[in-house]
């Protein structure tokens, strides 16, 4: 299947058929999320993968439309950082030095520029910036899933305090930004037969 076919087949599933995604396929989809680009490479997010039936059941009351949660194979929860601590940046540079096998000092210039960049932003700006990075992960996961013939539904329709309470998220430092249900579409989900509604090209694109 080429990518346009995969993206045309993709739709936001309202009801899955409860079948479980094979581990290897799930792993590959998650790897595509891991390989996402992020501003300054800081990956200001973490990703919870809900696979246990028990946890899915627990999360049902957190969603306004729970039919996806009760029928999906896995639920991915993307959590954005609200604060970028100096310690976090230090950890990032230690990691670069380790992975690329280069002395830490050679990264000083880059490290100082990142520290300066981050310190100039207000708390709200940091958080808005961090949330945007999470949506790049979301898009990559959805894209990879479509290519793997795995169905998805991105969801922001949840009760913030309820989901964060269940997942033990500290709202002072983190926020659940968006979730993605994965699985296989149910034959009963009539949304799969609906035509896609998208702006016509002349309204969407401007060639200059
Ligand atoms: C960030 C984001 C959040 C969304 N939240 C929900 C949601 O909470 N519940 C839902 O059923 N669909 C949700 N959707 C799906 C959109 O309604 C859907 O993508 C749009 O109507 C286009 O339809 P399609 O994805 O089937 O092509 C969300 C989509 C995005 C990108």
UniProtKB/TrEMBL annotation:
Domain Nitroreductase, chain residue ranges per copy: 8-184
Record flagged with keyword NADP: yes
Sample GO molecular function, one term: oxidoreductase activity
Keywords: NADP, Oxidoreductase
Record flagged with keyword Ubl conjugation: no
Signal peptide segment: none
Lineage top rank: taxon: Bacteria
CDD domains, sorted: NfsB-like
Pfam families tied to this protein: Nitroreductase
Family per similarity comment: Belongs to the nitroreductase family.
PANTHER family, sorted: NAD(P)H NITROREDUCTASE YDGI-RELATED (PTHR43673), NADH DEHYDROGENASE_NAD(P)H NITROREDUCTASE XCC3605-RELATED (PTHR43673:SF10)
Name of the molecule in the record: Nitroreductase
Protein source organism: Chryseobacterium defluvii
